[in-house]
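Tutorial handout. Part one gives the primary structure; part two gives the three-dimensional structure as tokens.
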Amino acid sequence: MDPILLVRCDAGETFGVAPSALEHAGAPTTVWQAVDGEPRPSLHGIGGVVLFGSSYNVEHADEQRFIADARALTIEAVEREIPYLGICFGAQMLAWSLDAPVVKAPTREVGYEPIRPNDEAEIDPLLGHYADGDHVFQWHMDTFGLPDGAIRLASGDLVANQAYRVGERAWGVQWHFEIDRDELEQWLVSFERADGPLETSWGKSAEAVREEADRFQADHEMKGRAVFARFAALADTLR
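Part two.
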């Protein structure tokens, strides 16, 4: 199986369950440290691309060079029909790369919120195992319009566009299905150390998020692992 390229777009990104889930699925991985300014890698011999979240948004492209490089990589993957999976910032990156708008969401989402998969999601090869009302982990202030020809797969009660597919090989997913409990704790601690209480700027306390994790993380993590397993299988089939 050709390796899956994991794109790190934030210094605090650990990739959560992704490495172990992909390893279990038999998929080797390689990492592009985009946020550290590493040169954009070649996609020759790459079986799929997973572009992860970031504390930056696409509006920071003029000040953060890696954002333009990530956009170029995204466009190349789509044009060459290399399977692409964008998570949070990665979903916004896919939309932006295909000339759809990325704007401030009507509300900031943090913590575990329900999603509403639609009929298209039921037959989707990556997200067909999600059910109406599943609680997924969110942490974002931006949202995206759907690119031309994209199919929406899931919506949310607070932010409409939560998941979509472009063609048969590119997905954007707003929620952080990759996150595990250790990474969640790291994000909460790092945020409050740098910016103060989460509730002040995001409307929900870190303790409330932890309590939600106690209820929802196990199922959330199981389904996140399944997404990576399905992506690896798809990439292997299409190579």
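Part three, for discussion. The two ends are 8 Å apart (CA to CA). The longest strand covers residues 102-117.
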